[in-house]
UniProtKB/TrEMBL annotation:
The keyword Membrane applies. This is Multisubunit sodium/proton antiporter, MrpA subunit. Residues 132-415 form the NADH:quinone oxidoreductase/Mrp antiporter transmembrane domain. GO terms for biological process: monoatomic ion transport. The chain crosses the membrane at residues 7-27, 33-50, 84-103, 115-132, 138-155, 167-187, 207-225, 276-296, 303-326, 332-352, 373-392, 412-433, 453-480, 500-522, 571-591, 603-624, 631-649, 655-677, 689-710, 752-770. Keywords: Antiport, Cell membrane, Ion transport, Membrane, Transmembrane, Transmembrane helix, Transport. It comes from Aureimonas jatrophae. Residues 691-772 form the MrpA C-terminal/MbhE domain.
Length: 790
């Protein structure tokens, strides 16, 4: 690629963030026209993206980026191929409509500007995620989506429910992000590959490695938390506390699709194994059925749609888990159809709430005459969600049943799950599209009205696109479906399904879905009551479990803080030393790095004498009767070490050691004389046993650690460097001096500053005089003297 193309593709990623920066100012200056101006940013990015569609259709990956942290091999790099192109199209297209929708839905003023800032940040984060090539870049944008969603879900932060929903989403998806980070690090460490392109070019690198199982579990944890798989789904319904434009965007093209994208992206590297083909269909099937059942239980339109999103995500995970080419194609078609339908229906829910003042399905009715455009949008969205012809959802549902209906037990179970889940979701879609608009108009809705054009234009466009995408399915497959699907080995187009009569198991199952969904819609009130009774008998659920987890986390954190940070210096010292000692011992034992017992070295008599002085100094410290004597005796070991350096021919090092030791002992002695401490430690030996054991373990552990280091082969690379360049570069023959003055000049200057500061502190301690008697005590003494004189 040339530089101009690179710049344009970088602009695709940068435009949403640029729009986020300009959003508040544009709303202040231009009001609703400012909203339209901000919507031009994703529209421009989409236009640039489509300039690359020819290469994407030819399955030519476009790579662009630059070195970010070269020393660690990290690049800020991106990959545009069929999969990322399809997701980026949905993000930018639906994002532009959501921005326009926000201009009519959100109130005027600073709140709208702040809201658009967060939405555009969300858009940029999700766009960067699906385009990211480098693993570190992927994780950065992954976490940025969690932060942006936290800001959006908690946008109405004055309400406790909004704050709780935001925190819940951040905790669950943030925890999954940490698991994903661990998985990405493990991928890099086990394979040496650091980008999606490298992993795609070596698809078996992960499956054949010994780290496959932990990598798979960590990646699935990240994907399942983001895409709300049972029992980690609870954050998604509670995210409905966000304004409706957030719900429309989050459920259709952004955060919940991040996990689906990750599973599709890693399928060539992690899929095709028994573990993959077991975990994903099980979790996906359960999420599909339970999510659709809970959707039918709700009466708030947004909550009904939220739980159908959970169900749809479960269906997508189940299809990716099945992993056949037909199943992946079905997942691609369903992903596209669900994104259009769900964005449309959420915007319809917001329009109903905005025009009628309520979202409760039981309080709505007769709005078709008051809100005709919204009614049309609702019908188009519900037909797409229910998979009715001639909408694109019909093609997706046909392909889903074609992928699951296989003549084996697994195919029977997955088909049954798909049939039940789709029927329940169709019943919910019918409720959203029909209940609010037909029947008598309640007296409380006499003032209901059609909403602003910016509110209904988005769902209308999405509904029409869902219709046109099916009618012109060849074009849709050319730009979206085929590039996102696995290539066909024969070279033919992988996806060629079109509107028409396709008699077979898929059509029979589609008819059964419609019939069962219509029956459930007819008996929706009884079904809602029955499901509510089941949930009441069950009682506990993951949402309550999250609250219990958070309360337990706070309580445990409080107790740990009280235990480790009670405000006592001796506790801090014990904890710090215990961590150090434990780290040393665990590391050596775990890695089998304990040193071998050294042979007895040949020492001269004066060297033995120095060792004897060190031992005597240790005994004096331990047996000293007062603290001051023990502190002063500490200097014996340091002075003996300085003497040993001198005997071994290092007078400069010996002098440094001598000065440091004298300085340390002087400071400690002066501090001891100025503090109000007991002259001696009067505790009985049984109370000092823990400290004595910790001290012995620390000394022995550090001694073994140093001994292990000494027994390792000596690497002379640094020594050779200084010998070679000390004279030629620094023009000094004393290598130690050259290191201190030239190679480590800044570090040495810092050490000198520390010494000067310490000297100043010593001088301050020396000049402290005895404090003057307390004035109150002086008055008492004078009064006492007066009494004696009297």
């Amino acid at each position: 690629m040339n530089t101009l193309s690179d710049s344009l593709l970088f602009l695709v990623v940068a435009l949403p963030f640029l729009g986020a920066v300009l959003a508040p100012l544009s709303i202040i200056l231009l009001d609703r026209w400012g909203t339209i101006a901000i919507a031009l940013f994703p529209a421009a990015a989409l236009a640039i993206l489509f300039q690359q569609s020819a290469q994407v259709q030819d399955r030519v990956a476009i790579l662009f980026g630059f070195d970010w942290i070269p020393s660690f091999g990290v690049r800020f790099s991106f990959r545009l191929d069929g999969l990322s192109f399809g997701f980026a199209f949905l993000i930018l297209f639906i994002g532009a409509l959501v921005v326009l929708y926000s201009g009519g839905y959100m109130p005027k003023g600073a709140r709208r500007g702040r809201f658009l800032l967060f939405i555009m940040l969300f858009m940029g984060a999700m766009l960067g995620l699906v385009l990211a090539d480098d693993l570190v870049t992927l994780f950065v944008f992954w976490e940025l989506t969690s932060i942006a969603s936290f800001l959006l879900i908690g946008f109405d932060h004055e309400r406790e429910a909004a704050r709780r929903g935001a925190i819940q989403a951040l905790v669950i998806t943030g925890g999954g992000g940490l698991a994903l980070l661990a998985g990405l690090v493990l991928i890099r460490e086990s394979t040496g590959l650091s980008s999606m392109t490298q992993l795609i070019d070596a698809p078996d690198a992960l499956r054949v490695g010994t780290s496959y199982v932990p990598i798979l579990l960590l990646v699935l944890t990240g994907a399942f938390t983001k895409s709300a798989q049972m029992p980690l789904h609870v954050w998604l319904p509670n995210a409905m506390e966000a304004p409706t434009p957030v719900s429309a965007y989050l459920h259709s093209a952004t955060m919940v699709k991040a996990g689906i994208y990750l599973l599709m992206r890693t399928f060539p590297m992690l899929g095709g194994t028994d573990l993959w083909s077991t975990i994903l269909p099980v979790f996906g099937g359960i999420t599909l059925v339970v999510g659709a059942t809970l959707a039918l239980r709700q009466s708030d339109i947004k909550l009904m749609l939220a739980y159908t999103t959970v169900a749809s995500l479960g269906l997508l995970v189940m299809l990716i888990g099945i992993g056949t080419p037909l199943a992946i194609e079905a997942a691609v078609l369903y992903l596209f159809a669900h994104s259009l339908a769900k964005a449309c229906l959420f915007m319809v829910a917001g329009s109903i709430d905005h025009g009628a003042g309520t979202r409760d399905i039981r309080a709505l009715g007769g709005l078709a005459g008051k809100m005709p455009v919204t009614f049309v949008c609702a019908l188009l969205g519900a037909a797409a969600m229910g998979g009715l012809p001639p909408l694109f959802g019909f093609l997706a549902k046909e392909e889903v049943y074609a992928a699951t209906a296989t003549a084996d037990p697994i195919g029977f179970v997955t088909t049954a799950a798909a049939l039940v889940g789709n029927a329940l979701m169709f019943a919910v879609a019918l409720q959203v599209a029909i209940r609010p608009f037909v029947g008598p108009l309640p007296s409380g809705l006499r003032r209901a009205h059609e909403t602003h054009v910016l509110i209904w234009i988005g769902p209308l466009v999405l509904g029409i696109i869902g219709l046109l995408a099916a009618i012109f399915s060849v074009t849709t497959h050319q730009f979206i479906s085929n590039p996102m699907s696995p290539p066909d080995p024969s070279g033919a187009l992988a996806v060629d399904i079109a509107l028409g009569f396709h008699w077979g198991p898929a059509l029979i199952l589609s008819i059964a879905t419609v019939v069962l969904g219509a029956v459930l819609f007819w008996r929706a009130a009884r079904a809602r009551a029955t499901i509510a009774g089941w949930l009441t008998r069950i009682g506990w659920g993951p949402d309550r479990g999250f609250d219990q987890f958070m309360r337990g986390l706070v309580q445990v954190s409080y107790k740990v803080t009280i235990a480790l940070q009670p405000g006592l210096l001796d506790v801090y010292m014990r904890v710090t030393l215990a961590v150090i000692v434990g780290t040393v011992w665990v590391t050596m034992v775990w890695t089998n790095s304990l040193p071998s017992w050294p042979g007895m070295p040949h020492l001269f008599f004066y060297e033995w004498a120095v060792i004897g002085i060190i031992v005597i100094g240790v005994l004096v410290v331990v047996l000293a009767a007062s603290r001051l004597t023990a502190v002063v005796s500490l200097g014996i070991q340091g002075l003996a070490v300085a003497l040993l350096f001198m005997l071994l021919g290092a007078p400069d090092l010996s002098f440094t050691q001598f000065m440091v030791e004298v300085l340390s002992v002087s400071i400690l002695a002066l501090v001891m004389t100025r503090l109000r401490l007991m002259p001696a430690d009067k505790r009985p030996w049984r109370d000092m046993g823990a400290e004595a054991a910790l001290s012995v373990a620390g000394g022995l552990g550090l001694a073994l650690f140093l001994l292990a280091i000494v027994q390792r082969p000596f690497d002379t690379a640094v020594t050779d460097f200084y010998e070679r360049y000390s004279y030629t570069i620094a023009h000094g023959r004393n290598i130690v001096n050259v290191i201190l003055v030239d190679f480590r000049g800044v570090d040495t200057m810092g050490e000198i500053a520390v010494v000067l500061t310490t000297g100043a502190a010593i001088l301050a301690l020396v000049r402290i005089r005895a404090a003057k008697p307390d004035a109150r005590h002086s008055r008492k003494r004078r009064r006492r003297a007066g009494e004696l004189q009297a």
